[in-house]
Design a protein that fits this description.
With about 400 residues, the protein is of the alpha+beta class. About 20% of the residues lie in helices and about 30% in strands. The strands form 3 sheets. Strands 1, 2, 9, 10, 11, 12, 18 and 19 form an 8-stranded mixed β-sheet that branches. The longest helix has 15 residues. It binds flavin-adenine dinucleotide. The site of flavin-adenine dinucleotide has 41 residues, from helix 1, strand 2, strand 13 and strand 17.
Length: about 400
C-alpha cells in the first residue's frame, strides 16, 4: 500500500468541489479531488446556469433570508468573469448578461409597487420596449417584463474553466473502490483506493458529492447532518430557431410558472431548457404527460412563438440539499464540520462562492494550516475524469 499525505481531500467534482479546490489551493493548502464519474455530472451540468440574485425568492412580495443571502452573488460572479474576482473565470462563456421576468397579463399593483421599491433597487429594472429580448418583441405580448440583475452561464465551460488549472490533482476513482477508513471515535484515518493499493491521508476530508453525499455519510456512519432530495422533472426542447430566451414567467404564485434558459446545441441549433414550477409539479407525470404539459404551457404563455424542427425530451433529477423541515428550500449554502470532515451542499450553483467562504472559515477556526505537499508521482497511474455532457446533447 502506497500512502500519500495531503492537507485536504475533496470528494465530488461538481461545482461545489471544483470551486472549493480552486479556493483552497489559492489559500495555500495542498488538496486532491476524487470524482467517481464525470466532472459536473450530477446536478451542476444539468443546472440552468442562472446566477441568481434572489428576486425569484421575493415573488410573494417579501424579501426572505434566501433572497438576501444570495443578493451579492451576481456581482461576485461578474468580478470573476471579468478577471477581477477571487477566481479567474474569464474563459467561461456567458450565455446571457441578464435574466428576465415576465407575466402574461399585467401584474397586480402590489407586485408592481414592490418591484419598483427601494428594497429591490439594483436587482429589478423595468425595460424599454426597444430593449426587450426578441422573444417578447411581438404585438401579442401584453404582459409586464422586468430585467433582473442576474446572469446565465454555460455550465460545461464553467466546469472546464474550474477544472483546468488543477487537472493534475483531480482523479477518477469508482465508488466501489473507494473505502473510508475510520477509527473507533469516528475520525477518518484515510481514504483507500482499494484497487490501486493507495491510501490517502489528509488533515480534513470534505464531502461535496451532491446526492452521493448520503451514501458517503452512511458508510462513515454519520447520522447528522441529514440530506433531503427535492425531485424535478425537467423538459428540453431542441429546435432550429435563433431565439435566445432567459426568463422566469411569474403569475400569482410564489414560484415561477416556468423558467426558460437557452443553450447552444449541436452545430446550428438551440435548446430551450424548461424548469420552475413546471418541473416541480411535473414529478408525478409520465414523460409524455410532462412534454404535453410543457407544450401547453408555452402555447399559453408565448402563443406567437414557433420552434421549427422542435424535438422534445424530459428527464428526472433530484436536488440534493441539507434537510429542512417540511422539504422547504434551504436559505443559503451549507457546510458543517463533523469529526475531521466537512459536509457541504451549496444548495445553488450561484452560492458556491459562499460555500467556499464558509469552508475556509471553518478550516481557520479549526487551526488547519497548510502542512503537506502530496507526492503526485505516486498517483500517476490514476485516471482523470472527463467533463460531463449537458442534457441538451446527451438526450438527443
Ligand atoms: P453535483 O453537481 O451533483 O456534484 C456532485 C459530484 O459528486 C458529481 O460529479 C458526482 O459524480 C460526485 N460524487 C458522487 N458520489 C461520489 C463519491 N462517493 N465519490 C466521489 N465523487 C462522488 N442552481 C443555481 O444557482 N442556478 C440554477 O439555474 C440552477 N438550476 C438547477 C436546475 C436543476 C435541474 C437542478 C437539479 C439544480 C439546479 N440548481 C441551480 C442547483 C445546482 O445545480 C446545485 O445546487 C449544484 O449544482 C450542486 O453542486 P454540487 O457540486 O454540490 O453537486
Amino acid at each position: 500500500m502506497q500512502t500519500v499525505q495531503t492537507d485536504l481531500i475533496i470528494l465530488g467534482g461538481g461545482i461545489a468541489g471544483l470551486w472549493l479546490l480552486n479556493r483552497v489551493r489559492q489559500a495555500g493548502y495542498d488538496a486532491l479531488l476524487l470524482e467517481c464519474d464525470n466532472l459536473g455530472g450530477g446536478q451542476s451540468i444539468r443546472s440552468q446556469g442562472i446566477i441568481h440574485g434572489g428576486t425569484k425568492y421575493a415573488l410573494n412580495g417579501v424579501l426572505t433570508q434566501a433572497s438576501n443571502t444570495i443578493a451579492n452573488m451576481p456581482q461576485r460572479w461578474r468580478d470573476c468573469l471579468n478577471g477581477s474576482g477571487e477566481l479567474d473565470l474569464t474563459a467561461t462563456k456567458v450565455l446571457s448578461d441578464a435574466h428576465y421576468m415576465w407575466s402574461k397579463g399585467s401584474l397586480g399593483s402590489k407586485m408592481t409597487t414592490f418591484f419598483a421599491s427601494k428594497a429591490l433597487k439594483g436587482r429589478v429594472d423595468s425595460i424599454a420596449e426597444q430593449d426587450r429580448p426578441r422573444v417578447f418583441k411581438n404585438k401579442g405580448f401584453r404582459g409586464s417584463l422586468y430585467k433582473l440583475n442576474e446572469l446565465v452561464l454555460d455550465t460545461p465551460s464553467l466546469i472546464h474553466t474550474l477544472a483546468k488549472p488543477h487537472q493534475d490533482r483531480i482523479f477518477l476513482n469508482s465508488k466501489d473502490n473507494t473505502r473510508i477508513n475510520t477509527d473507533n471515535q469516528g475520525q477518518i484515518q484515510s481514504i483507500e483506493l482499494t484497487d490501486r493499493k493507495i491510501s490517502i491521508q489528509a488533515q480534513r476530508y470534505i464531502l461535496t458529492a451532491g446526492e452521493g453525499t448520503q451514501a458517503l455519510l452512511d458508510r462513515w456512519k454519520i447520522n447528522e447532518p441529514q440530506m433531503q432530495r427535492r425531485p424535478l422533472h425537467m423538459v428540453v426542447v431542441r429546435h432550429g430557431a435563433d431565439l435566445p430566451t432567459f426568463a422566469h414567467c411569474i403569475s400569482t404564485g410564489s414560484k415561477p410558472v416556468v423558467t426558460i434558459t437557452t443553450h447552444p446545441a449541436g452545430e446550428n441549433e438551440q435548446a430551450w431548457y424548461l424548469g420552475g414550477d413546471l418541473a416541480e409539479t411535473g414529478v408525478n407525470r409520465s414523460p409524455e404527460q410532462q412534454i404535453a404539459e410543457a407544450k401547453k404551457t408555452l402555447q399559453q404563455l408565448l402563443p406567437w412563438i414557433e420552434l421549427p424542427n422542435a424535438r422534445w425530451a424530459s428527464f428526472r433529477i433530484e436536488r440534493a440539499e441539507p434537510k429542512q423541515s417540511s422539504l422547504t428550500r434551504p436559505d443559503s449554502a451549507f457546510a458543517q464540520a463533523v469529526h475531521n470532515g466537512i459536509i457541504a451542499w451549496p444548495t445553488k450553483l450561484a452560492l458556491s462562492p459562499d460555500l467556499a467562504d464558509q469552508i475556509l472559515q471553518q478550516l481557520k477556526q479549526q487551526a488547519v494550516v497548510p502542512k503537506y505537499i502530496a507526492d503526485l508521482q505516486r498517483l500517476t497511474d490514476l485516471p482523470h475524469p472527463d467533463i460531463a455532457q449537458p442534457v441538451w446533447e446527451s438526450l438527443f
